[in-house]
Write a structure and sequence with these properties.
This protein is of the alpha/beta class and about 625 residues long. The chain is built from 22 helices and 27 strands. The strands form seven sheets. An eight-stranded mixed beta sheet has the order 23-24-22-21-16-17-18-25, sandwiched between helices. Strand 17 and strand 18 form a beta hairpin. The longest helix has 20 residues. The N terminus and C terminus are likely disordered. The structure holds zinc ion (ZN).
């Protein structure tokens, strides 16, 4: 490191003038912090004894401890953020200096300022006195900057490079770092930018990083946890005194949280207990408080010598019972996207994508009888999508019902050069404008929306969609990520009067791959008919997720690589995107609740009596 000797001397000199702190962070919180606001799990004075596992990390955050990097990979409902706020309160009151608090986005931050930070300052007398009241005209400024004697607290979103690259800071706090963008405005990893700002303060700097984890191999908090000494909270068995980590299961998959079933085989979450690894006695939850109080953090790896990293799952949470953990697990276990969230937020563990286990042979076993070109009675909406290639247009129609359970309704290839052969488009029109009989009823349905990929043949596609947008025929394009995390959708204008929908393909692919692994009909299940062409199932399983490191800046990210043709899969991605467009942009009140919409269709009672899903051409007004 490039530290000038004078700088070290100057820092030591300055440090010598700091009054020795009479309290550490948790002692401060016990004396001064009042919990209030909507976001607090419990209100009233903060009590560290309620969450004894907070004690050691809080000591590491105190100025008389030399630790510089503190990493919390903690489950939700463990008071992770409240610990960070205690530290902020302590900085303002006892160890002032420039501090930066970074959350994933400005929106998250705004919510936190209003629901947690401002209420903390208001409710805690020692802070209320110190934080400068802004002049009325500075009210906007007050949102993201808190000035106090000897320092200031700046608040920023991780998606803002300019805020992350300005003044030097002594304290950095990054919250929910797994939801930060991988790269901010081309400037690199926002966590790197945050650390660079701490450089000036060398020996007195402190960095706190917290998050629940996400995907194995890409999770930033897991990377930081492994960089550290990997501490776990060991608690004594009330029966044999053996110290162990409270955990859902062992590494070999054997479950340690056990519950009974009744005579009918029904799960009884209230009987949840932990199986001691030493004496084999079931430990009931009523021992939790005494076990937490007697717990100790123990490092399980050497680490890099400067990072103290802590793992905590929700079994330790005083705000969530083991019975609740089990109930939530039972609700999530058969739906991969829910199980993933449960694993990330409750176990504080990364999720391993198991897309590799998925292959065409597995899907072939569950093909169903279905008349091509008909909709199932459970359908709420029919969505069509097309992929335009140099010599053909491939198109598919998917029905979605309650819980986004879906059915493949039709799949067709229209041969011909779309840029010169007008019959290709005419055949496509006839195909998508049909009335689709609803199985077992007198009803018919029409497509609610039709999306055409403009990625390859933009001009031909724009020519096609422009006069048909009033039929809800739109151009669309896939982008790996959009500016918002998760499945999202943006609409922009192209040429004159052409609306282009952008779809975040990464999130849509994740969702489809996890849904293909659902084996029982119900929410998210994808029904596949027996009439699908042979290559269809190969195409649906052609994408594999891999991790890739950018050699230039070392950023690791996940990518999809296809192992063969994948039009059928792409069309499914677009269908999910167009459903999202209906629900988020075009007509949320009609399409957001598919269960309600399906019931209305089945009984012929559309909400308000004016919205008609079929015959959109007759009204001409759809947006
Ligand atoms: Zn025991």
């Amino acid at each position: 490191m490039n530290v000038e000797p004078q700088q070290i001397v100057a820092e030591a000199w300055l440090a010598g003038w700091e009054p020795p702190p009479d309290l550490n962070v948790w002692q401060w919180a016990d004396q001064h912090r009042i919990l209030s606001g909507k976001a607090a799990a419990e209100s009233g004075p903060w009590r560290t004894e309620r969450v004894p596992y907070s004690r050691e990390p809080a000591e590491k955050l105190s100025p008389n401890d030399p630790a510089q990097r503190i990493v919390l990979m903690w489950a939700s409902q463990t008071s992770k953020t409240e610990n960070g706020l205690n530290w902020i309160g302590y900085i303002i009151h006892h160890a002032p200096g420039p501090a930066l608090f970074v959350m994933p986005t400005l929106g998250d931050l705004k919510k936190n300022v209003l629901q947690r930070i401002n209420p903390m300052i208001e409710a805690t007398a020692a802070l209320r006195e110190r934080v400068a009241k802004p002049a009325a005209k500075d009210a906007a400024n007050n949102m993201f900057v808190k000035e106090f004697d000897g320092g200031m607290l700046m608040l920023s979103g991780a998606n803002s490079a300019s805020a992350l690259a300005s003044l030097p800071i002594r304290y950095g706090y990054g919250d929910e770092i797994d939801r930060w963008p991988l790269d901010v405005d081309g400037e690199g990893d926002p966590l790197d930018l945050l650390e660079q700002r701490l450089q000036t303060f060398q020996s007195r700097k402190k960095l706190l990083i917290t998050s629940t984890p996400t995907i194995k191999g890409i999770s930033a908090i897991e990377r930081e946890f492994k960089r550290g000494d990997q501490r776990y909270y060991f608690v004594p068995c009330p029966h044999c005194d053996h110290r162990q980590v409270l955990r859902w299961r062992d590494e070999d998959g054997t479950r340690r949280i056990i519950w009974r079933r009744d005579e009918a085989g029904k799960h009884m979450p209230k009987t949840a207990a932990f199986l001691c690894e030493s004496c084999g006695v079931l430990i009931e939850e009523r021992f939790k408080t005494q076990m937490l109080a007697a717990g100790l953090w123990q490092a399980t790896a050497p680490g890099d010598g400067m990072t103290f990293s802590y793992h905590l799952n929700a079994l330790y949470s005083p705000f969530m019972s083991w019975a609740e953990m089990v109930s939530q697990f039972l609700k999530a276990k058969d739906i991969p996207e829910k199980l993933k969230t449960w694993t990330n937020t409750k176990l504080a563990e990364t999720w391993e994508e198991i897309g590799l286990a998925l292959n065409a042979n597995v899907l072939a076993k569950r093909l169903e009888d279905h008349t091509r070109g008909t909709a199932p009675a459970a359908a709420a909406v029919l969505i069509g999508t097309a992929d335009v290639q140099g010599d053909r247009v491939e198109a598919k129609i998917v029905a979605f019902g309650a819980g986004e359970e879906s059915w493949l309704v039709d799949y067709e290839i229209f041969w011909g050069d779309p840029s010169s052969d007008a019959t290709v488009w005419a055949r496509l029109d006839d195909w998508r404008r049909r009335d689709f009989p609803v199985h077992g009823t007198e009803r018919t349905m029409r497509l609610a929306i039709f999306g055409v990929d403009s990625g390859d043949q933009a001009d031909a596609v724009y020519d096609y969609v422009q006069p048909r947008q009033s039929e809800r025929v739109f151009a669309l394009k896939g982008r790996e990520y959009l500016s918002r995390p998760g499945l999202s959708m943006e609409s922009t204008a192209k040429r004159s009067h052409i609306r282009l929908f952008l779809i975040a393909t990464m999130a849509a692919k994740d969702r489809i791959i996890s849904r293909l692994q659902i084996m029982e009909p119900g929410p998210g299940y994808m029904h596949l008919p027996k009439w699908v062409p042979e290559q269809y199932l190969d195409q649906m399983t052609s994408e594999k997720k891999v991790t890739k490191k950018n050699p230039r800046n070392g950023v690791v990210k996940m990518e999809y690589h296809r192992t063969g043709r994948n039009e059928a899969f792409d069309l499914e991605v677009y269908a999910l995107g167009m459903l999202f467009a209906l629900q988020q942009i075009i007509n949320p009140s009609m399409f957001r609740d598919l269960g309600r919409l399906q019931a209305a269709l089945a009984t012929g009672q559309m909400p308000g009596g004016t919205v008609r899903q079929r015959g959109v051409r007759s009204s001409g007004v759809i947006l």
